[in-house]
Amino acid sequence: MKSQKAGFHSLRRLLEEKNIRPSFQRMKILDYLRKSKDHPTAEMIYRSLLSEIPTLSRTTVFSTLKLFYRKGLISQVFIDESEMRYDPITKPHPHFKCLKCGRIFDLDMECPYGSLKSVNGHKIYECHMYFVGICKDCLNKG
Amino acid sequence: MKSQKAGFHSLRRLLEEKNIRPSFQRMKILDYLRKSKDHPTAEMIYRSLLSEIPTLSRTTVFSTLKLFYRKGLISQVFIDESEMRYDPITKPHPHFKCLKCGRIFDLDMECPYGSLKSVNGHKIYECHMYFVGICKDCLNKG
DNA sequence: GTATCTGCAAAACATTTGCAATTCT
DNA sequence: AGAATTGCAAATGTTTTGCAGATAC
Fold this sequence. Notes:
Helix content of chain A: 25-40%
Oligomer: homodimer
Radius of gyration of chain A: 17 Å
Mean pLDDT of chain A: 94
Distance between the termini of chain A: 39 Å
Strand content of chain A: 15-25%
Largest interface: A-B, 34 and 35 residues
Strand order of the largest sheet of chain A: 4-3-6-5
Low-confidence stretches of chain A: 1-5
Shape of chain A: globular
Structural class of chain A: alpha+beta
């Protein structure tokens, strides 16, 4: 369970499967993404890894995320007005954004049309869906 | 059909219904939005109206769009990486973004869960859905 | 030893803010 | 007059770019 090596091996494998050279920074960024549940922004990733990798730069985080996305390793989530968010899951699934606490989380449901290959003659590569509202926790708190 | 007055009256009414003072700039911006089918960005609106209103500023366009959105007159469309897009239709409906020609257009279909008021106990205010791919026209062109 | 990767500094870009001038009622 | 609206200039915050040094194969 606490085996760091096994984690590193699987990260390395994931990167190599997508023809991405498994550098230390890339493994750390992928590791962070896969452990996070909050669809982090580049800034969140940068700040979290800075203590472990003091020389890390925002540029590297941005370019790495872009690379991961281009290679199909992660998906981009456009929900926030200002910042892009990233998701280690590439399979289509709906998100929920709470206006009160600001959390963005996965919904426990299938994405309708998630496996659709075309609509009205248009070829589909990606399907995105999300709801905006007030989450259960915030509703209960008042 | 070509009556400009009728258009202005209906624009004025639309704004007043939402408790927005119908200034010249606001009417023009709303008019542009309602006539457009391409989910314009603030910049697109600004550039288009500049010839008619040479003193118009980007600030006014941005603040007006934000006001319209807050009052429920238009909806925001997050599809573009960089710029926000605006839509005169507030009823949930799916969009399609073509990676080749860059067009963003409405799909002729209902938004699934578009009338849903809550999911898993979370209260829903907005429902957004869009597909990314290659549109019919671009496919046919090769 | 050559490709790639990293990271700094500066630039680019969309959007916001502070404030003064203008306009509406 | 008083309140709301507009618009300029400057600031903010995110992402990109150019380039030099470091690292990997």
